[in-house]
Input
Amino acid sequence: MATNLPVSAQSQGGIGTAPVPHTEHDDHLHDHEHHDQHWLWKYVFSQDHKMIARQFLITGMFWAVIGGLLSSLFRLQLGWPEATLDWLQPLLGKWIAGGKLDPEFYLALVTMHGTIMVFFVLTAGLSGTFSNFLIPLQVGARDMASGFMNMLSYWFFFLSSVIMFSSLFLETGPAAAGWTIYPPLSALPQAISGSGMGMTMWLVSMVFFIVSQLLGGVNYVTTVINMRTRGMSMSKLPLTIWAFFLTAILGILSFPVLFSAALLLVFDRSFGTSFFLSDIYIAGQALHNQGGSPVLFQHLFWFLGHPEVYIVIMPAMGMVSEILATNARKPIFGYRAMIGSLIGISLLSFVVWAHHMFVTGMNPFLGSVFMFLTLIIAVPSGVKVFNWLATLWRGNIRFTSAMLFAIGFVSLFISGGLTGIILGNATLDIQMHNTYFVVAHFHLVMGSSAFFGLFAGVYHWFPKMFGRMMDEKLGYIHFWLTFIGVYLVFMPMHYVGIAGFPRRYYSWTGFDAFSQFADLNKFISAAAIIAFFAQFIFIFNFFYSIFRGRRATQNPWNSTTLEWTTPIIPGHGNWPGEIPAVYRWPYDYSKPGAETDFIPQNVPYSQTASSNLPYERELDD
Amino acid sequence: MTALTILLVLVLLLVVFGLLFRLQILTSIFSGSYVKEIGMSNRINALLMLVFMVVGGAAFFWSFANNFSKMNPPIASVHGHAMEKMFWTTMIVIGVAFAITQALLFIYSYKYQHQDGRRAYFFAHNNKIEVIWTIIPAIVMAALIFAGWKAWTRITGPAPKDAIVLEVMGKQFNWLVRYPGRDMKLGVVNYRLIDASNDFGFDLSDKSALDDFTASEIHVPKGHPVLIKIRSRDVLHAVYMPHFRVQMYAVPGMPTRFWFTPTTTTDEMRAKLGNPKFNYELACNQICGKGHFAMKLNIVVDEPDDYVAWFAAQTPVSKNADLMASFKQMSQQTGLGKGNSKAARAEAIEETGETPAVPLAAQASL
Output
């Protein structure tokens, strides 16, 4: 204790030691603080953005466990294709009759793993949690623009979750046509049993999911545009908010296209139309459908699908920027370039979708265009990486659990992002398309990275969410096991991919060309299952700390952003008094001449004469 | 009983972990490190970053080198060799970027770990280096795009006029192959004419269909361009021939194509690999249902003479009595394939942009 720095001593004192502007007492706002609210309205049908964020987070965690469990099941099959897995019979019943996983159920597992992870965990769980939690707190608003719509957003997500979860227990199995649900496979129950009731429920669930996303997205955008506190110009927004803002715009513009694709698919499935079906002879019967195009569906799907991967990764990028700056005790390098690259990525993300379709029979000229646009996206992504590295350079780094995960994020984003340069090249994609090289690529760059962003965010903002700290030691163990585990799973997967192993294969033993990596697949499976179980350390830490964790101080990380000026556990309305005004950008860390190594955004220049830069002196009034 | 024991052991292990965890908290409260922000663990984590880089980097390098020979499927097509070169060139470029950025990340993490009394360097931006590291990747990308674009246009461009034509049709869960026969014209097919004996849905009222023949594996001659026309009759499939670096979806209702030139015969490849059982394989690479993982078709690359001999020895569909009978019946049932074949043929040519005929005599001169 005695060896403590002046800096960390600061944090114990909280806001009292940082200069704070005078706030007026406001009786009316204290009304929000009443504690006699019925539990149903406080915890269940809450309109408070912080409670809704917690609801999204815990539902997302539930889904992550399910999604991870499914992947462990199919990794068992891929690692030990000859094994007899009788002991799974109580869990899987007829799907593993005789200890052999049913090949159709294997496809259902990969389909549901993808759907759950991409949509329910990394879209709703990540963006839903942190956009909700941080937007009002960091822009200085009492709540979202519409608390009611925000509540609906969660409950539509909940409804969608219930439907998707129930579909796992159907007699004919859940959807099994891959998470991209390409018709005709997804349209014809004759083609695969999962395309019966399972696919119907998938589509219905996704419709509610899209509604949830749109309600949330409109709210996020409106709140950021209209409800920023006094002084909070767009050029003073923390990068988290910029990322959530652009993510919400992507969602609003792209999810309706998935909705339309789903709707047309429903028509093809149920009402005999031929949007995506043509010239099909199946199960001894020639279908009447003519003139439809399966490739049209792919265009519609990826018009959402590609922005979707940025919807997943951009919130993580924003949070990582924030966490890196805070814990390196340095301003984020190139704040404007960071915003510019986010905008660049957002714009480009809408014009690269067909790189998923180079070899689908699409006109090769389109392939050339999309290759060009796709590889350009490496430039803003590169800028972000370089800026993160420059942020660490000559910092004074504190390795909190959040910081570890943020550094892990950068590492995984580099590793996964670079192979995108191979896959975005149409020529090389001829060989790599749909192989394990693709699987390794996107699991690193959007799967694991986004998960690392999510973990970083939870560790960092947990004190604000629950008023207590998570256990740091468990956090360290969780990080190192996960970080090493992820690399052990996905690095070797590239080798398997370069060798041409196709994805979504129940077993490769039938092919000479794919016979050489049985050992490596065993290794990958073992690493994946161990990494999955390591996540229970996090889950334990999370729930334990909610109730028994060390009590948080008001600003435990000595951070500059507005959420840390609220009480330790902010009530409804966030600030008991007036909302603080903002005077400066969010990254005044280690400013030369300043008394502390951070100056919160709500401290006017007049109180920091010693550290003001030349142009800031004019603002000193 | 064993299950119960395992369960019991697991529960006890969890209890032990739980107790250790509590103990750890209590000791840290006692020693005062519980509320201390930056201490020993910061140094350990910083060191682990460095250890991770060194050990992880070495493990990566070792495993990559160790598996390298297994990673590269042998190449047997002209464009495959060019692609391979481009792939490894790109790998080197991204490998360099990977090594530099990862090294900086971990070295910075270690080097700039917290030190008491030091303050971070306030360094908010620098236009010059930002411009540099925007432009350099842009130039590298431009070069990669240009190389990729040139190769892509060549590979996906029209097949040479004298290419051998064959058709592969995907169905749940196997591949069907047909050749155009002596007239070198693929006859008209119609999915409504498909039945148990007429897998392809041959429309035998089209004269050019009569000499078509089907095969149980693909035969192609070495050193001659081959154009594969691709169809599907039910769901999406993808023709994936890893040794030839060929991949194209099979789309119901939309014929696709891919052409390539094989460079090594099956026998030559067997000798080269020292594996007398080696076969070129075609795999399905687009999820298509229960049997997706088992849609295999062998490809045989022959010496041109052998290919011509094989070609001449095949039986045309018109000699298949079952098929002829089945066609007659289907044609009566559906009213299809009766004199309307001329129009259908014109449509098929327009649809597939069929290349003009190369007579077998010309093929014999390969």
Observations:
- Residues 103-139 of chain A form the longest helix (37 residues).
- Chain A has four domains: 48-229, 236-275+294-376, 399-552, 569-621.
- The beta strands of chain A are 281-282, 285-286.
